[in-house]
Amino acid sequence: MGSLIESVYEQNAENWSAHSWQSKAINAQAVEYRDKSALDKVCRTLQQLPPLVSPAQIEEARELFASAAKGERFILQGGDCAESFEDVQLDIITSKTSLLAEQAEIIESKLVLPVTCVGRIAGQYAKPRSNPVDTLADGTTVLAFRGHNINGPGLDQRSPDPDRLLHGYFHSAATLNTISVFGSRSDPTETTSHVGKDPITKPTSYPRTILTSHEALLLPYETSVTRGRHCSSAIFLWVGERTRQIDGAHIEFLRGLRNPIGIKLSSKTSPNELVALLNKLCPDKTGEMGRITLITRLGALNVQAALPPLIKAVQSSGHQPVWMSDPCHGNTFTTADGKMKTRCAMTMLGEAQQTYAIHRRSGSRLGGLHIEQTGESVTECVEHIASGAGHLSLNYRTLCDPRLSREQAILFVARFANYAQRLDLETETHKIFEQRVKLRSEKEMVDDLAMMDMPFVEDHPQELTAFAYQPPLIAGMARS
Questions:
Q1: 10-33, pLDDT tens digit by residue?
Q2: For residues 392 and 380, what is the distance between their CA atoms, to the nearest angstrom?
Q3: Sign of the CA dihedral 315, 319, 323, 327?
Q4: DSSP characters for 370-422?
Q5: Ramachandran quadrant class, 323 (left: phi over 0; alpha: psi -120 to 50; beta: rest)
Q6: CA 213 to CA 259: how far, in whole Å?
Q7: Considering the entire predicted model, what is its pTM?
């Protein structure tokens, strides 16, 4: 089987190289560098640096994602909307990894599935923006801040600087080293486990591997750190809603990689478009189970209408991806004064819960959550719409979109996991109930035979025990 998969890969990669995307258009989110020679020099330097992740790590991750596609594992992906170079600090990094680990334990206890943690970490330094420029109070415009890998937040730092790609590499390396040394411990200064005083920051029961991920936005950078068919910038890469044109440069780059790949999908995605993307990125439908993760970001008001046609189209196509819910990006809004972007945690929860339920009803399975969050006590998201946004200015620190605070993120996952557990119990109970109804009809057939003086019942009365009908009391308990 391995040789067959390799053969299909060779066919798909026959006209592919890490540079073949350069013959395609970057239809959106292109970064224009003034000094092309400076960019080339940086890229040559990156090509000589060691890989950030190894091919072996990427191949091992493929097996984990394949397990999630089969419904045998759950993927929890979370972290900053856009990482900051200034946040490459021990306490901030470990607060992010320990948050993922604690959330994973909650999900495992409710869904009874192993959880793989994937951080938006060690490379999420570039962001797509809806508008390429910012308009200042005096009416003048400047280039939008696009993340520390591209430019700076100060008005005098907005010109894209290729040297920032090198800074991004080394900040990613420092973050990876911190994760390697300190793992997912909530208090990196402790050498033995202890019961934490704060239940929100209690240490996890065992260390977890944190896989790295980011959006594959800056193709010159990604190309420079690609070794063969493994992009070493991160284990898991995704393509955004704005850059996933099927004939575009980003899809061309990603199609030849061995890395697990994510595709962000909004409510505007058509079933035909989705299947075409899957066919392009994953031509071997059966041998590459889980290589593609479909990350739906539909918005709580759009899930019921938008998701079922996408699920049906994928099922009919024969592809076997991981389905993941991103309840953040479709539920962002601006405060009444127009000064801040925020999100409502309960609205986000509504999208995640609806998504889980629709997959169950459709004979599919939600295999992961994708959350923008931080391990710090920020004030960027509101709990309820009615609670207002007056507190947001207390500690609003995000470089781009609003993140759930540590406490909000843990509560969010707990609520989601409780809902999923309850829904799974009700679903399984309903199956048992239907089976018992079926068995009861068989019992009635046996009773009919008994009335006809058939010897079966006389000779084997114990067989009737199997057909004893009991009302589904568990179903009622599950709804309470």
A1: 555 569 999 999 999 998 889 999
A2: 5
A3: negative
A4: EEEB-SS----SBSSGGG-STTGGGS---SSS--B-HHHHHHHHHHHHHHHHH
A5: beta
A6: 10
A7: 0.86
